[in-house]
Amino acid sequence: MVVSTATQSFNRFSNIWTVARWNFSIRESVNQGYAHKALLLFREMKQNGLEPNNLTFPSVAKACSKLLNVKYCQIVHTHVVKSGFRSDLFVQTSVVDMYVKCSQLGFAYNVFARMPHRDVASWNSMILGFAQLGFVDRVVDLFHEMGIEGIRADSVTVIGLTQSALSVKDLRMMKSVHSLGIKIGLEIDVSVSNTWIAAYAKCGELGLAETVFDGIDKDLMTVVSWNSLIAGYALFEQCPKAIGFFKKMIHGGFRADLSTILSLLSSCLQPEVLFHGKLIHCHGIQVGCDSDIQVINTLISMYSKCGDIGSARYLFDNMLAKTRVSWTAMIAGYSEKGDLDEAMTLFSEMEAVGEKPDLVTVVSLLSGCGQTGALELGKWIDDYSITNGLKDNLIVCNALIDMYAKCGNIDNARELFYAIPEKSLVSWTTLIAGYALNGEFKEALDLFFQMIESRLKPNHVTFLAVLQACNHGGFLEKGWECFNLMTKVFKINPGLDHYSCMANLLGRMGRLKEAFEFIQNMPFKPDAGIWGGLLSSCKIHRNIVIAECVAYRLFELDPQTAGPYVEMANIYASAGKWDRVAEIRTMMKCNKVRKSPGKSIVQVNGKTHEFTVEDRFHPEGFLIYETLENLALHMKE
């Protein structure tokens, strides 16, 4: 009897020891990225007659969440229900988290709601799940219920609430969450602070992001803290700021990583910052991430946007393994440059090597068509989108509306807009802008007010489109109405472009003094564009006094640009002040200002042809000018 009891105890101990070894193997497989192997081990364990315990199921649930396989999740959940751990807090929380990671919030909430006891980890799993999918109301409700049950929020709760506020760019909610975090003492948690920096930056509140960053204890600061702030400035294309913080980061003893290099490269999107982009490229080589596919793709995009298409193509041609992103980045580079011939050549090559273009590739080409007025090619891409099932995507439809509008085919743009079953704000804004571009100003305003009646909230881009319609249509009263609607009703702070539209509208209507005062009272420093618009209005309305004030500011802002000199010379010439015209020409010579010749782009049979003033170098030049002379004779007759 004693021997029998001892044998039973030994078998039980041996069984526990064996389960522990299986648990270790399953856990290690998951941690090393072999989720499928972990599930096979779990099945083998069951086949060997061993019963999982409360440490087995969390690892198996984690494997399912990594595979994002709902069927596997349900099978594991069934095993949990049949086991003796259906009410175990640790196991139940892992099942909730498993369903959340697979975006099955309905299943997750059903398990969560039936749990007899819930700790902060259980609540956090649900809050993070709803936050990641943008269900802000559910997040707030869960947080309130959590408080009622007496569960104290921790760092994960605050991170989930922050993500929820960020998903809808709700700055007020963001600040409330920030206050909560400070109240419960989480401002010293660097992971929470890093989340706040990223959230404020993505909401455009870079000043607040810096404030949080400056509040981190220097001993606790990590490379993630620096990356979060640099990424924020990169998002808003503030290259000098991003570079400035990068230098401070290096001087502070931190080493740049892949995320740092990607963010810095993403901030370099204008020709004037190409030199900075090259320096970052060099630094990327130094830290050893220049062979990373993400870095190469971002470099192609950076060089293209900065106007160095040759360097972009060199990188592309020397890639050992090109991805869809690589092809799309290069195609987009040529499209932005207006070289649709090369873009389409690459598009064909991309398909030939078996890399299927996606909606981003198609949208890049459509953007190039709109930019160059290549309507026939745009129609071909429209047909391609239908054939390849891409036209069902709203982003592609919006890009097609934009392309047709910019190519002057507003009827097709309108038809496509009304065919979209679920229109987004971008859809409405694109057609409003299209109407304004094609001279249908009343239709643009009607569509704008129709959008507001449908209870869709306009953003700063929508207001810019409608203000441009008012500007070009000369609708001063409607312009002020929309401007006030923007600032007082929708509480949107106007940008420089919005002020520029209103200043141009005032100038166009002959309210030059009012326009001048409006520009001076702006909360921004006026740029050359806004002063240039007023100078053109002064020319139309023959106001030399204000024109001289405006020209003086333009000469200070950009002394090398020919436009203001030419405009001012024309204003003096129209008033018969030839001595002043001579003075302007002397100024141009002293400042070594050169006027660039105008150019035109014409597309014939899918080929793009560029002409400058007095250009006689085209292969068909003789025939072209002979035809033009014949047309000129017909016009005279």
What would the keywords be for this entry?
637 residues; single chain; elongated
Report on the architecture of this protein.
This protein has a two-stranded antiparallel sheet with strand order 1-2. With 637 residues, it is mainly α. Mean pLDDT is 89; it is low at 1-14. The radius of gyration is 32 Å and the shape is elongated. The relative contact order is 0.03. The protein has helices at residues 2-31, 35-47, 56-67, 70-82, 89-101, 105-113, 120-132, 136-148, 155-167, 171-183, 190-202, 206-214, 223-235, 239-251, 258-267, 274-286, 293-305, 309-317, 324-337, 340-352, 359-372, 375-387, 394-406, 410-419, 425-437, 441-453, 460-473, 476-489, 496-508, 512-520, 528-540, 544-557, 562-574, 578-590, 621-636, and strands at 599-604, 607-612. α4 runs antiparallel to α5 (89-101) and α17 packs antiparallel against α18 (309-317).
Compact description:
The protein is 72% helix and 2% strand. It is built from 35 helices and 2 strands. The chain has a two-stranded antiparallel sheet with strand order 1-2.
Secondary-structure blueprint:
Layout: H1 2-31, H2 35-47, H3 56-67, H4 70-82, H5 89-101, H6 105-113, H7 120-132, H8 136-148, H9 155-167, H10 171-183, H11 190-202, H12 206-214, H13 223-235, H14 239-251, H15 258-267, H16 274-286, H17 293-305, H18 309-317, H19 324-337, H20 340-352, H21 359-372, H22 375-387, H23 394-406, H24 410-419, H25 425-437, H26 441-453, H27 460-473, H28 476-489, H29 496-508, H30 512-520, H31 528-540, H32 544-557, H33 562-574, H34 578-590, E1 599-604, E2 607-612, H35 621-636
Antiparallel strand pairs: 1-2
Helix pairs in contact: 1-2, 1-3, 2-3, 3-4, 3-5, 4-5, 5-6, 5-7, 6-7, 7-8, 7-9, 8-9, 9-10, 9-11, 10-11, 11-12, 11-13, 12-13, 13-14, 13-15, 14-15, 15-16, 15-17, 16-17, 17-18, 17-19, 18-19, 19-20, 19-21, 20-21, 21-22, 21-23, 22-23, 23-24, 23-25, 24-25, 25-26, 25-27, 26-27, 27-28, ...
